[in-house]
Amino acid sequence: MIKYVIAGLLLAGNVMAAPLDRIIAVVNEDVVLESELQAMTQNVRQQIRQRNGAMPSSDVLRRQVLERLIMQRIQLQRAEQTGVRVSDDALNAALTQIAQNNNMTLREFRDVIEQDGYRFTDFRENIREEMIITRLRKAQVEDSIVISEREVDNFLATQTLQGEAETTYRLQHILVSVPEAASPEDIQDAEQRLAQIQTLLRDGGDFAEVAAGYSDGQNALEGGELGWRKQGELPSLFANVVPTLAKGEVSDVIRSGSGFHLVRVADKKSEETHLVSQTLASHILLKTTEVMSDEEAQSRLEQLRERLLNGEDFAELARAHSEDTGSAIEGGSLGWVSPGVMVPEFEEKMNGLAEGEISDVFQSRFGWHLIKVEDRREENMAEEYNRNQAREQLRQRKVEEELESWLRALRDEAYVEYRES
User: Fold this and answer.
1) In this model, does residue 186 exceed pLDDT 60?
2) Helix (H) or strand (E) segment spanning residue 229
3) Residue 167 is inside which H or E element, if any?
4) Which pLDDT does position 17 carry in this prediction?
């Protein structure tokens, strides 16, 4: 079965099935149909089997999948209200990339999808919806996150004091949610569910299986798996708890505005000092314009390459011809380049060159290039790397916390009516 990942989510298309018209939930002005629930339940069941995960009972799986469908509906409705769209061009580009990731053309990919029993039109719209949700979350949550240099300084200082800068944890999580304006009865119900979960765990129940059956967290059907997290990537709620837990240990109950949490350290490891392989490179860039076509830009660079191979100086030709004004005045020099700084097509070409070698002519999104590799070195970039990592970890932590609050607020504001028989 073909699998694909959009924004970290493993998804699949709708399984072909006889349409069922029974409405099982009303979500604001929209509905969820039995056929949709059956299709997604089958997809989720296949995904759990593929990763050898704990399979919840049919009733539990149905409930969890229905909640996932309801949250998808709510987010898509918000996207519609706020004007978040995905054009056909963007969707086609994403589908082409998915096909390439599976070493297929788009036509071959479509054939395989349909051979696996999925309507490609449904599959295509599933991709569009996931892209819309990703863009919505970015616009409403991620883009509002700002990390200051002082926050980075304080974060690194705290890590140093705790001696935890290099420790990474693989976490599992169970959430028993509580509404934002919870009544005493809501809290009592949640506490009873929590007590049941703790009893199952104390009696030797598998954490992943219990999470899949009882957790209200986003990753419940993945066994509550949160993946590997560095100290700085831990949600603030867990930051002081996780380092105190041994491998395999489950935390005491952690209370937050969203409910009751249990977190388990499934594994932990330490990382080695970070070294970076840097390349000292120069380039000549010609841009395509209304005046200069791709063919002309490529031809002119081919001529320049011949002159370079015949002994002319790279720096002089770069100053005279390169349209990258920033590097041209330096003879085309880009300085010491670390991995991930350049666009992938440029970096791949650069990494394939020996010291002193000149590339063939190639195209990137910025235009047509020639590259010369001057030198290479191993550089200890620990300080810069640690600051960048700290900034990203802080950002990811804030995103996760804000996303949880945002999703909970969306759910609380929505009108949801269950019509299960």
Assistant:
1) yes
2) strand 225-230
3) strand 167-177
4) 44
CA quadruple 44, 49, 54, 55: dihedral positive or negative? positive
Share of the chain above pLDDT 70, in %: 91
Instruction: Find the radius of gyration of the CA atoms of the chain.
Output: 26
Q: What digits encode the pLDDT tens for the residues 115-150?
A: 887 889 989 999 999 999 999 999 999 999 999 999
- At 266 the three-state DSSP class reads strand
Q: CB neighbours of 316 closer than 8 A, spacing ≥ 6?
A: 331
CA atoms 92, 97, 100, 102: torsion sign: negative
Question: Is residue 341 helix, strand or coil?
Answer: coil
Mean pLDDT in residue range 155-172: 75
3-state SS class at 169: strand
Task: Flag whether pLDDT at 4 surpasses 60.
Answer: no
Alpha helices in 260-379 (DSSP H): 294-309, 314-321, 325-328, 344-351
**pTM score over 0.85:** no
Identify the bridge partners of residue 357 per DSSP, sorted by sequence position.
Answer: none
Is 149 strand, coil or helix? Answer: helix
Q: Nearest-5° angle of CA 367, CA 370, CA 374?
A: 135
> What's the CA dihedral at 97, 49, 171, 58 to 10 degrees?
120
Contact 362, 343 (CB under 8 A): no
Residue reference for tokens 């200082």:
157
Closest CA to 12 of 54, 42, 51: 42
Sheet containing 275-286, strands listed edge to edge, beginning at the edge strand earlier in sequence: 333-337, 275-286, 367-380, 362-364
Residue entry with tokens 């409930």: 63
Tokens of 327: 């590097």
User: How many other CB atoms are there within 10 angstroms of residue 173's CB atom?
Assistant: 23
For 81-124, write each residue's pLDDT tens digit. Answer: 999 999 998 999 999 999 998 899 999 999 998 888 788 998 99
Asked whether the beta carbons of 66 and 25 are under 8 A apart, the reply is: yes
Sole residue written with tokens 């937050």: 256
Do residues 350 and 337 touch, judged by C-beta distance below 8 A? yes
State in Å, rounded, how far the first CA of the chain is from the last one: 33
